[in-house]
Amino acid sequence: MSDADRLRGGPEIGIDIGSLPFELRAMARKIEVHGTPGQSRKNSSGQFTNVVYLEGDQQAAAHLFAEENAELLDAVDFSESNIVQTSTERPIYDLILDAHGERELEWTDELVVERRRDGTTWVFEEDVYISRGGQRYRTNGRSDGVARVNRPLQELYEDLEPTITPSTLREAGVEGDTSQVIAYYRQSTEFDNTALAE
User: Where are the alpha helices (DSSP H) in 21-69?
Assistant: First the structure.
């Protein structure tokens, strides 16, 4: 089977983009991770397998990339800048994180909650999550619309009951815009809203 036929069937590894017919070559994209100057060895060891896909098939490509590179991805410290992040565009990087199980997203009414494998939880206003890309994770300076919590939201809620306020959230280590955490508790049926400050 030719590279063109394989690629028409979905994302693939081992495709030579230069050998594709012109019309496919124009639509072909590649997830390619390469070393980045200044990155530590623990985040740049090993050779990643590239994945070629046709425009519009990014999600399937990210899943194949995560599957083919599972061991190398396990060695990456996603809590800091890493070669996967610096080698890919933000939408592809986000899809790789999802496919590798590095994070879980929960979309609620006007909020996005991102739970990381390392235990960190981020709570974003939906438009902040969508519009800021890689800058969405800043909690100092321009932190409106984003909060960082270093533990599960359920555990934080239980520790702070009976009264949860912006100041008790800050004292508990919540960074950034604490109103996002309170908004999440208000929206979720899991929590007693009487514990929340007005």
Answer: 22-25, 58-68
